[in-house]
Specification:
Strand content: 15-25%
Structural class: alpha/beta
CATH topology of the largest domain: Polyamine Oxidase, Chain A, domain 2
CATH architecture of the largest domain: Alpha-Beta Complex
CATH class of the largest domain: Alpha Beta
CATH superfamily of the largest domain: Protoporphyrinogen oxidase, mitochondrial, domain 2
Shape: globular
Radius of gyration: 23 Å
Largest sheet: 7 strands, mixed
Amino acid sequence: MFDAEYDVVVIGAGHNGLITANYLAKEGLKVAVIERRYEAGGGLCTEELTTPGFKHNLHSYYHVLVDHMPAYKELKLKEYGAEYICPEVQTGLVTSDGKTLTIHTDIEKTLQSISKLSERDAETYKSLHDGYREFYQMIVIPALYTLPAKPSERVGVLEQTEEGLEFLRLDRLSPIEVLNEFFESEELKSVILNELIYPRWIMPDYKGLGSMALLIITGVERKQLCVGGSHQLAHALWRSLMDNGGVVLGCRTVERIIVEDGEARGVLLSTGERIGARKAVISSVDLKQTFFDFMEDGTVDKNLLKKIENFKLDEYSPFTIHLALREPPKLSASVREPSVDESFHLILGSDTTDSLSDKIEKIRRGKIPEEPILYCSVPTLYDRLQAPPNRHTAVIVSPVPYSVNGNAERWDEIKWDYMETCLEYYSEFAPNLKNSIMGKFAFSPLDIERRLINMQKGSPFMGRPTLDQIEYFRPLPELSDFRTPIKRLYLANSSCHPGGGITGGPGYIASRVVLEDIKAGKI
């Protein structure tokens, strides 16, 4: 009946699929991961795009939860080659009139930078940092690695204390409303809002996500980069899986999930091979592929399919530029604030909250802002392995619409011109940039979708993190426990709690759910 058979078949070798597979293999289950591409890792991708010897992280770059990710420690990924560096200057902002603000791993240095703009804001920032840091460390972060609680359960716990009630009040606001309540400095508000936009994909006006502004202030999530490039994490997960007895079957495309008598029994590949799953099939790819492309008509209830069809993808996409450089960019503003040159995440084109809001509204209407928002980084300031000796790489990300004036294919015509627009703007802040460029490469939202088909419409988070699509409602209440209406079919993708990014959360939780069902004799 089957050409090969395993206890568990995982669809997709992105980091969540590999994490799920690792944990199940560690428990002695025979596990196979099916991957359509020739390499594992999904968005954990590092390539020589511009010039030989220059390594560029094509998708994932900032990893903010390494310190908290259970898989990193429990799977001993450092021992398998995934080492991390945490830059001391986490974030920098330079305005068009030369003002600067820097956020450091050292809270005292952060407060010193803020105080140059507003003494009052520095005091408020410290109060919020000290008041909420332990709460986020002890309550919020662990919740990213457990099944989401029902809304009433969450509220019931928090409403028991005065502090909890205040948190609930702030959480009902949008990030910009929370920041307007506490701070006067436009620069400080702009930094925090941009930290939410990228790399967390949260818009300033998302109601019910006001607490995310506090998350940034506490600094419990620290942006880090993987030594040698993001793909090193993929390699570590793959090596760990092999040592645990699992396999990755690359260059194989899933045609259909085999469902018999309401149960997932395996997968049919495009080659005609049938791979059986004695215990479970786990999909770590997006909802559309899982429920529309991989299922025969009539397999899934039409009402559920309609809800899945209405699941909202990200409101914007990243346009990414990769540079090979002779020397790192030197910011004119560093004459007054030297540490801004060391910023891991440099924000340009976002002077005020009003200008940021105007640009976001243009993006929502399918327009490209005349003046871009840029997020710039020079990995080789911290990791010399990503370029030849005495040379550097840079990555520039600009939030843009997936479809330009309603036409996504327009990116094929304009991406090189838009790259030059972004480089011209960056050069206004770093005059030495242009003469330093040895090679350059542009990657549009349409390119993202073509390369990684589960990131539909250039949607890296595979689902908008709005109030109706987070926690118990992600992706839907019916699917929030990672189980599906089809017995033995589970989800482990970024459309699930806690969402996108390199958190490892969906993969970790999925493995717990599957093991629980196996031990309970349910599968």
